[in-house]
Every structure is written in structure tokens, then in C-alpha cells.
């Protein structure tokens, strides 16, 4: 949300400076020049404007200009924060004699410069860069999860990722920590000589699969989880099939086995 907020502020400032209406464009450019002049103590060059808006604190740009908060100071701070994340900055283009915003492409060493003629794509370009950054960071996590290989085969298994339907906040937080193996269990913390035993059953390595599926003191929880799944499945069986028996012997047979769900049509 912070990144998106910064994108909106930068986009707003850029659109004012590149407004098709020359009057507005000039008022904005003059207000900006006045502010920078106060900050650095001399009339700013075009390069100074790009440096200032990029949030540089080097030399004279780091001075306390005693200025009050304004659109330009907000835009400057936004670019300072966003630049640290994705490496974007304001740039004065000597060739075309215009101010633009440089947005690097995360997956390659290439970059895009958005100027007056392409002003409409600025917001989209910055958002796409942020998106790529987060995706690449996610892909670099060392533990991608054993379950994900299976659940990614069918989008219904991941329905909650995009919208959070049928998922409590507690579950949401757990799912993502669990997937990246970030839940602080003795077996997960990588420190030499650390005791990795389970505190409940003394098993030698307390990992997430151990806690969820094989730690005996938690067996009652396994049963409840099993029953919850069964309840959900029974609820989803089409009513027209009728006669659903749960955890019962099969009528008309001698078997003592009690299947989880029997549907008789
Ligand atoms: Zn255990």
C-alpha cells in the first residue's frame, strides 16, 4: 500500500509538470523552481530539478531549506522511498530537452523513460516494476513449499490467495508463513548446537510436518481436522444423490469397516 501511495503522488506531480495546458504547466514549473532555489540557494538548472525531485540528499540538496510540506516535498519523499525499492528516479533528457522518469525493468538491465509524450503510461509502468520486484523476491525465497507443487495444479486449491474467500485472517497468516517455512519451530531455526527436539513428544526434529501430521500428543487435533474435511465434503455432495452415511458400517454387508462417507443412489 505504501508503494502504491508513492506511485500515485509521483504520478500526480508528473502530470502537473507535463500538463497539456501551458498555463498550468508554467505555474507548476515556477513554483517548483522557487522551492528548489530556496533549498539550494541559487537558480536551479534542469539537472538540479531532476536531482531534487529524485529525493537526493547530497550536498546542498540535503540542506534544511526551512520549507513547509507541499506537493513537491511529498513527491520528492515518495520518489526517495520508491527509488530505494525499485531504483526509479527523475531524469533530465538532454537530447529531447525534457524532464522524464526512469523506471528500471527488474528482470533485465533495461529501463523505460516516461516523458511528456508517454505521460499516460507512468502509473502503469511503475506499478508493473513494483509487481515484478515482489514476484522476483517471492521466487528467491529458499523454501517454496512442498504443498505448493500440488496445489498449483488446480486454481480452486489456491482460490483464497487472490481474494481470501472462506479464509480467516489467522489462517491467511499461517498459510503463508507455513509455505515459506517461516514458523519458528525448533527444527526450522538454523543455529548450530540448537536443541531441535519436539517439546511435546521428544521426537528428534521438530519440523512443521511433524507438528501438523505426526506429533502424537496432537492426535485429537488430527481427528478434528479430518472430521472438518469430511463435513465440508458431505456439504458439497449434490442433494439429488441422496442417502449420505458418515462414519457408519455399510448397510447390507457384514463388514465392520466404517468408511468416512458412503453415498447410496
Ligand atoms: Zn512431537
If you had to describe this structure to a student in words, what would you say it looks like?
This protein has 265 residues and is mostly helical. The chain has 2 domains: 138 residues, no CATH class; 89 residues, no CATH class. It is 47% helix and 8% strand. It has a 3-stranded antiparallel beta sheet. The protein has a two-stranded antiparallel sheet with strand order 4-5. A hairpin with a 4-residue loop joins strand 1 and strand 2. The site of zinc ion has 6 residues, from loops.
Which structural class do you get from the secondary structure elements?
A: mainly alpha
Quick one: biggest sheet?
3 strands, antiparallel
> Spans with pLDDT under 50 lasting ≥5 residues?
none
Q: What is the rounded distance between the termini? A: 52 Å
Query: Could you estimate the helical fraction of the residues in percent?
Result: 40-55%
- Count of domain modules: 2
